[in-house]
Each structure stands twice: as C-alpha cells, then as structure tokens.
Specification:
Layout: E1 2-3, E2 9-10, E3 29-34, E4 44-48, E5 56-58, E6 79-86, E7 92-93, H1 95-98, E8 108-112, H2 115-118, E9 130-131, H3 133-142, E10 146-149, H4 159-170, E11 174-177, E12 187-192, E13 203-205, E14 209-214
Parallel strand pairs: 6-8, 7-9, 8-10, 10-11
Antiparallel strand pairs: 1-14, 2-14, 3-4, 5-11, 5-13, 6-12, 12-14
Helix pairs in contact: 3-4
C-alpha cells in the first residue's frame, strides 16, 4: 500500500459570502481591519461565521449536552485511511445500500451521493441525501471511526437527521460534513481534515484533503 502524497485532492468547500449555508446559520462575513492599499502596514481582516460553515466536523457536544467539545475529542478520528463509496440512492442512504459494502471496525467511511452536484448550487436543497437512522445504527454496530458525507448534514432534514447525529455522536463516531466529492472516484484514500482547537467548541470548519492510495 502506497500513499501518493504529491497528488492531493482538496475536498473542502470554498468559504465566501455567496456559499451555501444551512438555513438560519450565521453567514460568512469578512471585515477589513487594516489594508496596505489604505496606507496600513499589513492586511488584516476579522471574520464572522457559524462554526458549521462549509466543510466541517461535528463534536458530540453539538447534539449531546454532556458530549465532548473540540479540545477533548480524539483528533485521530480526522486523519487516516478512508474508503469512499458511491451511493446511487437519490433519496436516502438506506441499510440495503451499504450492508454489502466492505465496512470494517475502525474505518473512515465517506459517502459520495447526488449531493456533490447540489453543492454546486448556492441554494439549500431540502431533498439532499442523508444517512437513514437504520444505517447510522448499522455503522455504530460496525464500530467505524468516522463517517463523512457530501452535504451540510450527515442525516436527513428533520427529526430523523437529529437522531442520526445523536446515534453516531453517543458512540463518539467522528462526523465530517460538506465534503466536495464531485471529482473523487470510489476507492481508498488517506484523509486529513483537522478541526480548530476551540475551547468548548461544538464544531469547526476544516480543510479536508484526500491523498490517493495504491494498494
């Protein structure tokens, strides 16, 4: 097995004022504090955004009152070998879609769906593909390390999506959301998607990078 370090694939969403946001989340805003073009010594800006902006991770505290926060989570969940699987179901990731996949204990699993196309549109789609609760429970039973998806939530919109989060986060399974997998083929990769170390944080944007792996 060989990791191709010189062929990184950036699977992070570009953060800017026009990007896709979860409904009612704070939008990205940048204010320039100083600019060289205005006679200052350096360019310096202040940014305001939600902690679940763009490509990001969720911590257990996001949905569990007693869950771990950013400075307490296991950082090893957000780097390592990752399996990318293409899911063709355009409504939801059901148990039948994944039960035959080679998913093993300790895996990082990334699901590529029709969402990768939806991410190209600067509007929120209610009908994005999320992980069903039954599938989330199955992944828990497989004792995976982390699961990622190509939209802003691992679970579908509504009550089921919230319970999907709780089911995964109770077991401290890592969650990576907002991955841009449009140009990524199914297969094995090495992922790095490290969050910021914010005290008390329930989520953090990440710069997610995949490196191809030759087996």
């Amino acid at each position: 097995m060989k990791i191709i370090w010189d062929k990184p694939i950036d699977v992070s969403l570009l953060i800017n004022e026009n990007m896709l946001f979860w409904p009612n989340d704070p939008k990205f805003h940048r204010e320039w504090v100083s600019k060289i073009s205005e006679g200052k010594n350096a360019n310096l800006s202040k940014i305001v955004m939600g902690s679940h902006t763009g490509t990001h991770i969720d911590t257990p505290y996001h949905f569990l009152e007693d869950g771990k926060t950013l400075e307490k989570i296991d950082i090893n969940k957000f780097w390592g070998l990752a399996k990318v699987f293409l899911i063709k179901n355009e409504e939801k990731i059901m148990l039948d879609d994944i039960i035959s996949l080679p998913i093993s204990e300790g895996d990082i699993i990334l699901f590529k769906t029709k969402n990768s196309l939806l991410l190209r549109e600067n509007k929120f789609h209610e009908d994005y593909v999320g992980l069903s609760l039954e599938s989330a429970k199955y992944l828990v039973s497989k004792k995976i390390k982390t699961v990622g998806i190509d939209y802003l939530s691992i679970g579908p919109r509504g009550d089921e999506g919230r319970e999907v989060h709780r089911t995964l986060l109770r077991e401290e399974i890592g969650i990576i959301e907002g991955l841009d997998l449009l140009n990524v083929e199914e297969g094995l990769y090495f992922i790095v998607a490290l969050p910021l170390k914010i005290e008390g944080g329930e989520g953090s944007p990440v710069r997610a990078i995949l490196f191809p792996v030759e087996e």
